[in-house]
Specification:
about 325 residues; alpha/beta; Rossmann fold; 2 domains; seven-stranded parallel sheet; five-stranded parallel sheet; 12 strands; about 30% helix
């Protein structure tokens, strides 16, 4: 990387604390007016780093426009908006912040679970309509003693499991075929690992914590939703593409499951006529699970630190494609 005039591209604004850190280190900041690829493309030349939020995908075509790009630093754990294989081919390091939003996202998932179980949107709406008698319908449900099924028992899934077990004495089922044995061992006394069908059939609450990949695209479809209990609820704070949204809409309309809490959707923002907006057994939030004030600052600062580490010859945390470091352009670039 050039030793003078280092430039970093922000396709979207980031928190002031992170910007101040870049300025303190003498970095030139290039802020895109918007996140359209056509707007960002001409800004790629002459930059050494990108601090990336979720509003744009950094594609092979965009990266091909760069002439000195060394690192793409994501302000979160997911890197599905980066063409990582293309970045690797081009010798571009991709980093993420895998643990910074763990508890924040788990809190949001738990909030959705509680709001659905207690029927809070309905209760609020009916009180505003002067239907105070809704309290006699017996609609809210307890969580205590119920079964929580987790698809994915990484950092966020594990944290939600801990919260629900300690606070509500919930039984915990988990499906995670990629979790290594050494990661399963510490929780085997209170988490029961099982196959996907059993998890969906037995769980009162199903929460998704899996990355989007070809293997997980529409993992939860009509068949899987059909395995769920009619009074079960589904929560997704991972990626919208892991659910077949058409099948989910049908299941919700037909009351085949009780409700869904969705922080992520197949298309974001959703289409104006997306049927999910009209369903009263759905809670929608705008991909905000990790965007509390505190967490937003934290992940932006950590992403900036990754870029600064690379620019100053240090190996950063959260490397997604470490094989890049074996390429000639990286020889002598980083210290250990």
């Amino acid at each position: 990387m050039k030793e003078q005039g280092k430039r970093v591209l922000l396709p979207q604004p980031i928190e002031k604390e992170a910007v101040d850190l870049l300025k303190k280190e003498g970095m030139e900041i290039v802020l895109a007016p918007d996140v359209k690829p056509a707007t960002v493309q001409p800004l790629m030349k002459g930059i050494q780093g990108i601090i990336l939020r979720t509003g744009i995908k950094i594609t092979r075509e965009l990266m091909a426009q760069a002439d000195d790009l060394w690192v793409i630093a994501r302000t979160g754990a997911g890197v599905d908006n980066v063409d990582v294989p293309a970045a690797t081919e081009m010798g571009i390091l991709v980093t993420c912040v895998p643990g910074a939003n763990t508890r924040t996202v788990a809190e949001h998932a738990l909030t959705l679970i509680l709001a659905l179980a207690k029927r809070l949107p309905l209760m609020d709406r009916e009180v505003r309509r002067d239907n105070f008698g809704i309290r006699y319908k017996g609609l809210p449900r307890d969580l205590t003693g119920k079964t929580l099924g987790l698809l994915g028992l990484g950092k966020i899934g594990s944290e939600l499991a801990r919260m629900c077990r300690q606070s509500f004495d919930m039984r915990i089922l988990a499906y995670d075929p990629y979790l290594p044995a050494e990661a399963k061992a510490p929780v085997k006394g209170w988490v029961e690992f099982c196959d996907l069908e059993r998890l969906l059939r037995e769980s009162d609450v199903v929460s998704l914590h899996i990355p989007l990949s070809p293997a997980t695209q529409k993992l939860i479809g009509a068949r899987e939703l059909g395995w769920m209990k009619p009074d079960a609820i589904l929560v997704n704070t991972s990626r919208g593409g892991v659910i077949d949204e058409v099948a989910l809409i049908q299941s919700l309309k037909e009351k085949k499951i009780a409700g869904a809490g969705l922080d992520v959707l197949a298309q974001e923002p959703p289409e104006p006529n997306n049927p999910l907006k009209e369903l009263d057994n759905v809670i929608l939030t705008p991909h905000i699970a990790g965007l509390t004030l505190e967490c937003g600052i934290r992940v932006s600062v950590e992403a900036v630190k990754a870029f600064l580490d690379v620019s100053q010859g240090r190996k950063p945390e959260g490397i997604v494609n470490p094989e890049v470091l074996t390429q000639p352009r990286w020889h002598k670039r980083l210290r250990s």
